[in-house]
Amino acid sequence: MREFIVENLTNTEALSVTVILMNNIIALIVSFFIMFIYKISYVGTAYSRKFNISIGTITIITAMIMSIISNNIALSLGMVGALSIIRFRTAVKDVRDATYIFWAIAAGIGCGVSQYALIVIGSAFLLLFLIITRKGFTSCNKLMVVQGTPDCLHKTEAAVDSFFSGKVHISMRNVTENSFELVYSIGEGILDNAAKQNQMDISEKLIKIDGVKRVNIVDQKDELSQ
Prior knowledge:
By secondary structure, the protein is α+β, with helices and mostly antiparallel strands. It contains 10 helices and 4 strands. α2 (17-41) packs antiparallel against α3, α2 packs parallel to α6 (116-132) and α3 packs parallel to α5 (95-112). The longest helix has 25 residues, at 17-41.
């Protein structure tokens, strides 16, 4: 038993050049695939090409590390200890970005131990999952902010309620002696459908009301700003 343990701990058998090339070629192909999926599925205005390239790099680096430690238990334990002292302080702007990071790491691990079929099939299922849940990833709410004078407050509220057939509710109502501010949270689908039914945008309708000074519609997303 002792000889078996010592043999496995001190085993330094190197991988063949063919295996190394295959591991890296598959890792390269998978990394470009993940980068492409990230680019076409990204939603927002803060797309980072550098971050996307980093995702592909993570796959290749992980495959390289796994190729190094796959045949040596002692080296793998030492690598775990070495990597555990490294701290990454880069803030992830979107929780979906972390998903792609884990995907890249998993793909790199699979390529490093030559589990090509597992990586291909797993990536295909991940792509299928992203396609099925695409609506949930891409949909977002809109915030509509209406500002004006108090004399047109009730008329403005009635116009909004009529435009959306009572499907939206006010999130904030601030009224002072000289002005008012209304904030509505509106689903993107509700906003588009209402615009088609009324054949005009809600901002066009509200700005025509005497006393309404400003109508702003902005995206409401769960992204963290840097």
